[in-house]
Design a protein that fits this description.
The chain is an alpha/beta fold. The protein has 11 helices and 8 strands. It has helices at 10-19, 29-35, 39-50, 65-78, 91-103, 115-124, 133-138, 143-157, 171-180, 189-194, 199-216; strands spanning 2-6, 24-26, 55-59, 82-88, 107-112, 128-131, 162-165, 184-187. Strand 1 (2-6), helix 1 and strand 2 (24-26) form a beta-alpha-beta unit.
Length: 223
């Protein structure tokens, strides 16, 4: 299963990439705006951090399909490497996904709230769909169940489209979408870091070191 960092903070992206096996980075306009930097140089910095072989997701902000397509082509021309264009699942967005699919430009359908949103996007030729798990829960829905339903629909329809679950408030939600069959998740740096925030791990390591040092007087096997 793929793991993406949902952030535009280059320092955090670099840190996580150094320690974890990351498959790429997802961004959106809100995430980019928070960094307060020109967006193209920022995206190029992110790509330099993760490498051009890993996927970088960049969202179009136009409303009309033809304009979305033009933005997608501009992004592809401005950046090198493995770029995926994020497009909201509006009617115009679906039209744009269909047009871009014919051009061989890969897309992710974002703002997915229902299985039928995902179905329409996959039919249009999206490479990924991103159901908003926690946001669905906040609307009195069931984000995990939506992911399960999308996975089942895609399997029965033989769609060549992956479920990239997004919008998490805790690691339990990430675990549940993994078990639900999502092909990937994109999570904020704090959620990814929380995967290892288990007090017992630190306690065990400290015990190992203390007992080893007590007998051998060293905290290294090389001494």
């Amino acid at each position: 299963m793929k793991l993406f960092i949902d952030s535009a903070n280059v320092n955090k992206i670099q840190l996580l990439s150094d320690y974890y096996s990351i498959d790429g980075v997802t961004t959106n306009p809100s995430i980019i705006v928070k960094e307060g930097k020109p967006y193209l140089p920022l995206l190029k910095d992110i790509q330099s951090s993760i490498g051009t072989e890993k996927e970088l997701f960049v969202q179009a902000i136009a409303d009309m399909a033809e304009n979305i397509v033009e933005e997608a082509k501009y992004i592809q021309d401005s950046l090198q490497g493995n770029i995926v264009i994020k497009i909201p699942v509006t009617s115009e967005g679906l039209k744009a996904i269909k047009l871009l699919s014919r051009m061989g430009i890969r897309t992710l359908a974002t703002t997915v709230y229902t299985p039928m949103n995902a179905y329409l996007a996959a039919k249009a030729g999206a490479s990924y769909v991103a159901p908003y798990v926690n946001r669905i829960d906040n609307l009195s829905g069931n984000g995990i169940q939506v992911v399960k339903d999308i996975v089942e629909i895609f399997a029965k329809s033989n769609f060549n489209c992956e479920v990239l679950a997004a919008s998490f408030k805790n690691t339990q939600q990430v675990l549940e979408v993994c078990l639900a069959g999502a092909q990937g998740v994109t999570a904020s740096p704090d959620i990814i870091e929380a995967f290892l925030k288990v007090p017992s791990i630190k306690e065990n390591v400290e015990t190992f070191s203390k007992e080893w040092y007590g007998l051998y007087g060293s905290n290294s096997l090389l001494d």
